[in-house]
UniProtKB/TrEMBL annotation:
The active site is at residue 23. It comes from Metabacillus indicus (Bacillus indicus). This is Nucleoside triphosphate/diphosphate phosphatase. SUPFAM superfamilies: FomD-like (SSF159234). GO terms for molecular function: magnesium ion binding; nucleoside diphosphate phosphatase activity; ribonucleoside triphosphate phosphatase activity. It is an enzyme of class 3 (hydrolase). Belongs to the Ntdp family. The keyword Hydrolase applies. It catalyses: a ribonucleoside 5'-triphosphate + H2O = a ribonucleoside 5'-diphosphate + phosphate + H(+); a ribonucleoside 5'-diphosphate + H2O = a ribonucleoside 5'-phosphate + phosphate + H(+). Has nucleoside phosphatase activity towards nucleoside triphosphates and nucleoside diphosphates. Residues 18-156 form the DUF402 domain.
Length: 176
């Protein structure tokens, strides 16, 4: 398939540090694809967990992945506003099968008023010890968590006021 292009439908695969699959999103429409960034959109897509359980997302979402940053951002469009869910993760890779990244447990949930909470710090510590994350990875992840929090406070990148709305409009042109 080669590197995806606008309009392509791709899967997203999330792994754990030890190489085991964590989660698969079945279908995401590529809205932008450059050598360093993929922006996608999906709505009511099937998600398969590592144990085989499946569920369907409840609302439209715009996803932001980058090859430079150790996080990804999902903006979920709900009736009462945009909620964000950010994974502290490896930068994404593309391998003709799917967009892939390593999920490092730490997450940030952001509410429509841009307040946020950091989630799963205990899970991160557990997996850091269990899977022997190298110290350099621990430092990179914590540094990128701080960068992500700065982006949120500054309304930068995917957190800028019109980002999700503009990309959702483009998504709608692909699904009609």
């Amino acid at each position: 398939m080669g590197f995806p292009k606008e309009g392509d439908s791709i899967q997203i695969h999330s792994y754990k540090h030890d190489g085991h699959i964590h989660r698969i999103w079945d279908e995401t429409t590529v809205l932008k694809a450059s050598g360093h960034c993929i922006i996608g959109g999906n709505d009511r897509t099937i998600v398969t967990e590592s144990d085989g359980r499946t569920w369907i997302t409840r609302e439209p979402a715009i996803c932001y992945f980058h090859t430079k940053y150790w996080f990804n951002v999902i903006g979920m469009i709900r009736e009462d506003g945009i909620y964000y869910y950010c994974n502290i993760s490896s930068p994404f890779a593309w391998d003709d099968e799917a967009l892939k990244y390593i999920d490092y447990d730490l997450d940030v949930k952001i509410f429509p008023d841009m307040t946020y909470i950091i989630l799963d710090e205990d899970e991160y510590e557990y997996h850091r010890k269990k899977m022997n994350y190298p110290n350099v990875i621990d430092l990179i992840l914590k540094s990128n968590l701080e960068k992500l929090l700065r982006w949120i406070r500054q309304r930068k990148g995917p957190f800028s006021p019109d980002f999700i709305d503009e990309w959702y409009e483009r998504y709608l042109t692909h699904v009609k």
